[in-house]
Backbone:
């Protein structure tokens, strides 16, 4: 979803229920213009591969996703899952989480540290570019330098923790090196951080989101030209299993196999990401026009779950409950914590799960779900209590809060389930004396609103990595983060999570943080989703899961 998936990035991401409201849901259901119907990837694959002596059989797989992509340029990484997935097909991350929530080497063979300050990244000795040149430490150093450039001013990467990078996350204009990122030898890079950082945090924050670029191809391109460089729309040199051949950010990304991929040539020679409204995923799976839907990038409508499960040509998999439908407050505009807490009391979260999620979800306060090692079941979630909510609104109004103020609530139009939930929430909050204006926008626009803090409330599906929620929480609960919220208890607890590897101690610190979320409510977890993924039975070696779905994409194959 996901600074959406990053502290980040620092971190990104439906069913019909009658709530007794006369509200139009048209904004949530507006379809795109037949995205990907022309199958843009299909074409002269047989001729291309025949010339190389490859298998001439044309194998095409379509992956269904439901959010537009802001860019396919890794230097503009926004940490939404759809952008990361689409770009990591061609430029590998250093590491990635797998389905067991373990960090798995992708471009790197290992990342280690002895002091939580110096991190050694060992690049896989076999890693190579599609033109035959080796992937080197210099490529990683070059990529981080360009990610830190103030010319692009991409705050999403949270590089401020790296020595030699400013506290704003950017290097000096015209910088040719960063003191905290050094090539030790041809295949080894040492990162040095300004302060102690847990290994899991380094891996989750930087290892998963630094997508290494080919220095020998791009170093002659002026810094100011890189953001808009058309090469990224059809790169000639990649280190991943696929390369983009054409792209329409609103509708599709098409790929061809990198037959020189150093981990093994992909078995599927043509791949499409097809961006469609969530309502089209069921029919696409049923017809075979869509082969694969993963939980965090493809939002199958809740009312379609049973129908998808019943499809004879499809296998389904429910992911762990890690997708948090988060509501963030701009605490610089919604300044009174009693108003924020009133909204927490005023949302009937269990009813939303029952009515919209078919019971496949959970209610928590704060950031942590039951899937993670730091979840504390002893923290009882705030109950729905509209009378308590009314009291809090009245108290705040008596102390100067303008109860006539309309709060602007921005919601991802690609998430049709929460579009309905947001309208229900707005109606319920009106009953406690608050005016809420729900506005639906696409994910890219939502991220722009978040970054500029041009909102009062903002909701997005946010996947907090269960093994390392620190980067996201640290970013979100900061002066520069989406909430603009700073709290000493939170700051100290977060720092403590980085100074120990004892799960019990870390759990205690996150309990402190989630307790503050109940009391101050700079964010609300509307619900945690256990989402469904689906794969056509013709596709082999492919399992849709919250993490790791695409780690082995070069091994996917189709039966005849």
Residues:
């Amino acid at each position: 979803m996901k600074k959406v998936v990053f502290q980040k990035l620092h971190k990104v991401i439906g069913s019909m229920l009658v709530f007794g409201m006369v509200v139009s849901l048209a904004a949530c259901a507006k379809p795109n213009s037949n995205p990907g119907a022309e199958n843009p990837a299909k074409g002269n694959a047989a001729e291309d591969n025949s010339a190389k002596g490859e298998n001439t059989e044309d194998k095409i797989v379509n992956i269904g996703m439901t959010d537009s992509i802001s860019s396919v340029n890794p230097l503009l990484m926004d940490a939404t899952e759809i952008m990361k997935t689409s770009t990591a097909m061609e430029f590998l991350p250093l590491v990635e989480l797998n389905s067991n929530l373990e960090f798995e080497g992708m471009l790197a063979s290992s990342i280690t540290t002895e002091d939580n300050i110096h991190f050694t990244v060992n690049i896989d000795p076999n890693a190579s570019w599609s033109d035959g040149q080796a992937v080197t430490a210099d490529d990683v150093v070059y990529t981080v330098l360009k990610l830190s450039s103030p010319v692009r001013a991409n705050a999403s990467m949270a590089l401020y923790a790296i020595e030699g990078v400013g506290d704003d996350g950017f290097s000096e204009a015209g910088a040719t090196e960063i003191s905290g990122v050094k090539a030790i030898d041809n295949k080894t890079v040492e990162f040095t951080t300004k302060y102690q950082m847990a290994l899991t945090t380094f891996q989750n924050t930087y290892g998963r989101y630094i997508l290494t670029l080919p220095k020998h191809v791009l170093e002659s391109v002026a810094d100011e030209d890189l953001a808009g460089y058309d090469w990224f729309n059809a790169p000639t040199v990649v280190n991943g299993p696929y390369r983009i051949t054409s792209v329409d950010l609103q509708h599709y990304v098409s790929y061809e196999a990198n037959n020189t991929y150093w981990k093994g040539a992909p078995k599927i020679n043509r791949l499409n990401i097809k961006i469609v409204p969530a309502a089209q995923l069921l029919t696409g799976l049923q017809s075979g026009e869509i082969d694969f839907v993963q939980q965090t990038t493809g939002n199958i409508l809740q009312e379609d779950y049973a129908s998808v499960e019943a499809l004879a040509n499809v296998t389904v998999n429910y992911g762990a409950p890690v997708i948090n439908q988060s509501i963030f407050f701009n605490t610089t505009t919604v300044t009174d914590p009693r108003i924020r807490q009133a909204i927490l009391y005023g949302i009937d979260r269990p009813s939303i799960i029952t009515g919209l999620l078919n019971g496949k979800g959970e209610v928590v306060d704060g950031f942590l779900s039951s899937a993670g090692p730091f979840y504390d079941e002893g923290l009882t979630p705030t109950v729905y209590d509209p009378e308590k909510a009314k009291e809090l609104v009245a108290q705040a109004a008596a102390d100067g809060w303008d109860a006539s103020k309309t709060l602007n609530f921005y919601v991802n139009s690609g998430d049709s389930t929460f579009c309905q939930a947001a309208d229900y929430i707005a109606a319920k909050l009106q009953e406690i004396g608050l005016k809420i204006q729900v506005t639906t926008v696409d994910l890219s626009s939502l991220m722009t609103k978040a970054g500029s803090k041009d909102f009062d409330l903002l909701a997005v599906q946010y996947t907090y990595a269960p093994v390392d929620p620190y980067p996201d929480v640290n970013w979100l609960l900061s002066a520069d983060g989406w909430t603009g919220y700073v709290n000493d208890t939170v700051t100290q607890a977060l720092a403590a999570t980085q100074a120990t590897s004892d799960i019990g101690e870390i759990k205690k610190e996150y309990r402190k943080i989630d307790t503050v979320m109940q009391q101050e409510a700079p964010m609300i977890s509307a619900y945690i989703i256990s989402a469904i993924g689906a794969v056509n039975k013709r596709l082999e070696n492919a399992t849709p899961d919250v993490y790791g779905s695409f780690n082995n994409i070069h091994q996917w194959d189709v039966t005849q």
